[in-house]
Amino acid sequence: MRFRRYMDLYIGLFFLLFTVVYIAQIPAIRMTRVSRIDSAMYPKMIAALLLCLSLAQIYVALKQLKLGGQAVREEQTKREYKGAARTLFLAVAYVVMMEDLGFLISSPIYIFLQILIMCPLEKVRYVQFGIIAIVASGIIYVIFRHGLNLMLPLGLLERLYY
Amino acid sequence: MLASLFAGSIEVLHPMCLFLIMTGVAVGIVFGSIPGLTATMAIALFLPVSYQFSPLEGIALLISLYIGGVSGGLLSAILLNMPGTPSSVATCFDGYPLTQRGEGFKALGVGVFFSFMGTLISILVMIFVAPGLAKMALNFGHFEYFSIAVFALTLIASLAGKSLIKGLLAGAFGMACATVGMAPIDGVIRFTFGSQQLSAGLDLLPVLIGMFALSEIMSSAETSRIEDDTSIQNIDLKNVKGFGFSIAEFKSQITNMFRSAAIGIGIGILPGIGGSTSNLVAYSVAKNQSKTPEKFGTGIIDGVVATETANNATVGGAMIPLLTLGIPGDMTTAMLLGGLMIHGLTPGPLLFVEQPLFVSGVFVAMILANCAMLFQEFFGLRFFIRMLQTPKHILLPIIFVLCVVGAFGLNSRMFDSIIVVAFGCVGYLFLKLKLPVAPFIMGFILGPMVEIYLRRGLMQSKGDYLPFLTEPISGAFLLITLVSVILTVRKNIRSAHGGAGTQ
Amino acid sequence: MKNNMFRRLSFWIAGILVAGVCLFPAVSEAADWPTRPIELIVPYRAGGDTDFHARTYAKYLGKVLGGTVTIINMEGAAGSVAMQHLAASRPDGYRMVFNQDANMFTNKIQGGSDMDHNNFVIAAIGVRDDTSVLVAGKGAGFANAQDFLTKARAEPGKYSVATNIAGFSFFVVCKLEAFGKFSLNPVDYGGAAAMIPALLGNKVSLAVNSYGVFKQHIDNGDIIPLMLCAEKRNPNFPNVPTVSELGMPGAVSSRGYFFAFPKGTDQAIVKKFSDAVAAVQKDPAYADDIRKAYYLAPFYRDAATAKKYMDDIWTDMVKYQDAMRKN
Question: What is the DSSP letter of C25?
Answer without folding.
Answer: P
